[in-house]
Amino acid sequence: MDFPAGCPHLGAMKFILSTHNMSSNPAIEERIQHRIEKLEHLNGRALETRVTLEHDRTQAPERQFRCAVRLVVRGPDLFAEDVEEDPLKAVDLAFKKLEQQVRKLHGLKKARHQEAARAKEARKDNGV
User: pLDDT by residue (tens digit) across 32-68?
Assistant: First the structure.
């Protein structure tokens, strides 16, 4: 399923959902859209989100559903995946991992700017 950029429910981010060996249902799509909106709130500069849901019947029952999420941003893409017994649980945990990465990236950028501001202030105080 491919939603074009500018959809009212997703803002400017493009969203691609692909499934393997399973069919998508409205509950899963709604959960994914909710989690993408949350990601978009955390990082409004994301360009695209690719979500892959897979059902692997050869795995143990507690590891049959796999959710992989790739967030395309400027610079290196962010990627997270999780394997669970329930597709909704796999979606939630994969997005939770991705949200942690987005928060960490934001913190690193913020720290870099604060460090540069401190260095500029120190140069100003020293008369350089």
Answer: 999 999 988 888 888 999 999 999 999 898 999 999 9
74-83 in b/e burial notation, b at 16+ Cβ within 10 A?
Answer: eeeebebbbb
Are 97 and 79 in contact by the 8 Å Cβ rule? The answer is no
Strands in 78-84's sheet, in edge-to-edge order, are 2-3, 14-20, 48-55, 65-72, 78-84
Maximal CA-CA distance, the chain? 69
- Say what the pTM is: 0.77
Task: Enumerate domains of the chain plus CATH numbers.
Answer: 2-98 (3.30.160.100)
Q: How far is CA 20 from the centre of its chain?
A: 20
Whole-Å CA distances, 1 to 34, 36, 75: 16, 15, 25
